[in-house]
Write a structure and sequence with these properties.
2 strands, 75% helix, 5 helices
Length: 142
């Protein structure tokens, strides 16, 4: 009885995650179209470099949204690290932070890459409706 209830709850949470990823995907697609339309307005280029910074901000935010969709659909440590790396890169590229904050962000990205390289092994576990399953993270990159 308890196992069946746990399996049902897991299945419900998985479906909710898929619905959230669909909503995020629709928002990312709509915003991508909006960015393209916005670029072809004549007033877009009047602001000079500010327009480029706004475009970069929107584009990186969309990339983070796409990575978030992958994270919701594929429960692996690598996808989490990728989302965090994109979020930190956005902060570094379009954020107007103090130099020491940029340095901390660079160190944080380096730590994420080190974690990905040295701490994630080939036998990470992922949760499925059938329980924990061992995956090969190196094969999933290809």
């Amino acid at each position: 009885m308890r196992k069946k209830l746990q399996d049902n709850m897991f299945e419900i949470s998985y479906i909710i995650e898929l619905c959230i990823s669909i909503l995020v995907g629709l928002a990312v697609a709509a915003m991508a179209v909006w960015i393209v339309i916005d670029m072809f307005r004549s007033s877009f280029f009047e602001n000079g470099i500010d327009s480029l910074v706004q475009l970069l901000d929107k584009a990186i935010t969309l990339a983070i949204g796409a990575e978030l969709i992958k994270m919701l659909c594929k429960h692996t440590p690598e996808t989490i690290i990728e989302v965090l790396a994109f979020a930190l890169a956005r902060q570094l590229i379009v954020g107007h932070a103090a130099p020491w904050e940029n340095l901390v962000t660079v160190f944080a990205i380096a730590i994420l890459f080190a974690i990905r390289r040295f701490l994630l092994n080939r036998h990470d576990m992922v949760e499925t409706p059938d329980g924990l399953v061992e995956i090969d993270t190196k094969e999933s990159e290809e």
